[in-house]
Each structure stands twice: as C-alpha cells, then as structure tokens.
C-alpha cells in the first residue's frame, strides 16, 4: 500500500473551536500521514496555537480529531504520549530551576528504555545543550531554551512531534541551528506538524502546507505547488 492510501496518523475533520463568542477555528480539515512534515501557516491570531492545543487534547472542540484512530477528546494525555505524540509549545514550559539535563530527562518519563542513548543523540544535535547540561534552564538564552524544548520532545522518542512556532523570536544565527536540528529530526522519520508564521522556515521543511486565514484553511497542497500561489506570494510580501 502506498503512503497515500494508508490511514492518516492524524485526521482533523470539520474542527471548530470557540472561546466564548470568539470562533478561533471554523470547520478545519487537516490530514497528516506517517513520515510527513506538514506546515500550518498563518499570521498572529489566525488559530495555529488553538489548533495544536486541540490536537494535544487541551481544548474542547466540535468536529473530530483522531490520532492513530483514537478520538483525542476521549484519550488521556498519558495515552497520547504513550502512543508517540509529543507537543512542544511556543511557551516552552521548561522547569526554570532545574538543570538542562534534568529538563531533558523529564521528556522520557514515560519511556526510560534507551534514555541515556537518546540524551547522547540530543547532545549531538545540540552541542550547546551539552556544554550547559548542569546550568539552570531559566538562565539559558531564548534560542537555547527553544533547543531545550525541542530536545525534551526528542527524549520522549516521539513518532509525531507537534511544534508550535519553533522559530519565534530567534536571531537568524540561532534559527539556523533550530533549522538544522529540524532537518535532522525529519530525517529520523519522525512525523512533524509544524505551525509557523515564518514562511521561509515552513517552505524549507514542510512536504505539504495548510494556510489558515480567519480560523479556516484558505489554501492547502504540496509545498512546491504553493510556492508560486498568489495567496502565498501576497502573504510572503506581507
Ligand atoms: N483563551 C482565550 N480566550 C479568548 N480568546 C482566545 C483565547 N485564546 C485564543 N483566543 C483567540 O483565538 C484566536 C486564535 O488565537 P491563537 O492563539 O490560536 O492564534 P495563533 O495563530 O496561534 O496566533 P499567534 O501566532 O499570535 O500565537 C485569536 O483571535 C485569539 O485572540
């Protein structure tokens, strides 16, 4: 069976999420297949964080979100994580007074087998974290905290990594490190859902893109086919 005929790993169907009277997402459909890197694009306030919060089971929603065939609203966070889903939020959620290494080891709390090997891999990807392994997380720069957040995600040995704006607020030189790490992660056959405002970053990494506007999917398709799309061009042009 080719990849296209297989069941999606994640299937979002007619998803609507409201905060009181504000409808943040309105009838969104997204499929992610094993091995793909999917970009979800859009400017501030378009609904990207709402989408990934809902997929990770943190929000009530209408419609359906299935991960490995399980309806997310009916699965516990532990079940989702045990089934390979890991969510790296733009908020990073690090434990500031714990060391870099302790934060990383927390990522593997449900799966200690192979933890030390995974730690070595993360340090290979991010030598700056190894140099700072005993330093408190809150004393890291923004870019280093982003590396730590990504590294902690990898410590869970994920099948499906959800990244909410990994490029946000980073200086270009740090962005290059994050970009290299993401390329290495996708080479490891981890399926990735990448929410991004930075179109250059998304175009570089995603196999397919969904462009959101006002809480709805405005365009979707393979990255190459959207590169010359006039809506995408107008978005790049600002
Ligand atoms: N807790 C909340 N209560 C009320 N409205 C909310 C809440 N969280 C988000 N919203 C609204 O929902 C819409 C989508 O927000 P969301 O954070 O999902 O967008 P986003 O695309 O992730 O933006 P950003 O890139 O700025 O993080 C916005 O209009 C936002 O103001």
Strand arrangement in the largest pleated sheet:
6-7-8-3-9-10
From the spread of the alpha carbons, the general shape counts as globular
Structural class: alpha/beta
**What is the ordering of alpha helices and beta strands?**
EEEHEEHEHHHHEHEHEEHH
Which second-level CATH architecture of the largest domain applies?
Answer: 3-Layer(aba) Sandwich
What is the percentage of strand-forming residues?
25-35%
Structural domain count: 2
Determine Rg (CA atoms, Å).
17 Å
User: Mean pLDDT, nearest integer?
Assistant: 89
Total number of beta strands: 10
- Distinct small molecules bound, one entry per kind: adenosine-5'-triphosphate
At the fold tier of CATH, the topology name of the largest domain is: Rossmann fold
Provide a count of the helices.
Answer: 10
Termini separation comes to: 41 Å
Give the name of the CATH superfamily of the largest domain.
P-loop containing nucleotide triphosphate hydrolases
